[in-house]
Backbone:
């Protein structure tokens, strides 16, 4: 009798699919996408009547529930795995197939799955314990169980992220969910309507590539070069000596914004301020010529 391994496949991991759809909804809001496909997909596949919705709830329990004692964590895992075994694998696999098919029809799959999630290791371990066969690999089973027990017994983080928002949204009735989503879009548009195009593009890029550090680094570095070049063009047009000195200091300071490895919030905030400075310089120049 051979021992079987359970290989993790993030494209078939229910929690990862849920998280990526949640993230895509945020991206669609930022891009002002009308009738976001992600919202429709989310409502169709993740609700209390689908096997995907039921399995995600089990993922959520393991991910969010905390116990101080390892024995309690083990009992929780046993109870959740028992509940998972009562789900229909046939229906679940069919729903996953249709979900992935629908995602491919509406989004670029490479971009959609090109992300790193904070709980990836936990999600992968849950996937493996859910997929344990009749002849499981004892080492693989033990490793996954240890990972989950350590996670459950670790101190909780005070973080109300997108998953919690989407969880609350999914529990509402259809009309209320649609209203909530529309209010989210309206609130975003209202709050950021005064931003110029460069600032909006920066925010969109930041959200789109929040987990894709290489792409975000490249974008930020290219914007720094553009900003520096633009400011140098304006500095020669400034008549006031004090203003010119301040502007030259700003130009010299922008090189410190180049991210080392990871783009941080402070980098984005500083770039937003530089965009605002350029906007003001442009407005002043226009007023002088009129």
Residues:
């Amino acid at each position: 009798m051979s021992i079987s391994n359970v290989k993790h496949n993030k494209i078939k991991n229910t929690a990862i699919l849920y998280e990526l759809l949640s993230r895509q909804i945020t991206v669609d809001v930022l891009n002002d996408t009308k009738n976001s496909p992600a919202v429709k997909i989310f409502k169709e596949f993740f609700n209390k009547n689908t096997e995907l919705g039921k399995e995600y709830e089990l993922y959520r329990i393991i991910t969010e529930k905390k116990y101080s004692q390892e024995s309690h964590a083990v009992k929780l895992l046993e109870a959740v795995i028992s509940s998972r075994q009562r789900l229909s694998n046939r229906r679940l696999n069919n729903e996953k197939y249709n979900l992935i098919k629908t995602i491919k029809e509406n989004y670029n799959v490479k971009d959609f799955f090109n992300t790193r999630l904070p709980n990836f290791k936990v999600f992968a371990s849950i996937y493996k314990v859910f997929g344990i066969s009749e002849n499981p690999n004892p080492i693989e089973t033990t490793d996954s169980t240890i990972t989950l027990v350590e996670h459950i017994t670790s101190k909780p983080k005070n973080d109300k992220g997108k998953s919690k928002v989407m969880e609350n949204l999914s529990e509402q009735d259809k009309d209320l969910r649609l209203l909530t989503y529309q209010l989210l879009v309206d609130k975003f548009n209202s709050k950021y309507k005064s931003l110029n195009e460069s600032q909006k593009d920066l925010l969109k890029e930041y959200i789109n590539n929040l987990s894709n550090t290489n792409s975000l680094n490249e974008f930020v570095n290219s914007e720094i070069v553009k900003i520096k070049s633009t400011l140098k063009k304006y500095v020669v047009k400034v008549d006031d000596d004090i203003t010119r000195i301040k502007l030259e200091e700003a130009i010299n300071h922008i090189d410190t914004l180049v991210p080392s490895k990871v783009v941080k919030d402070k980098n984005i905030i500083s770039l937003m301020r530089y965009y605002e400075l350029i906007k003001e310089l442009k407005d002043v120049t226009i007023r002088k010529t009129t």
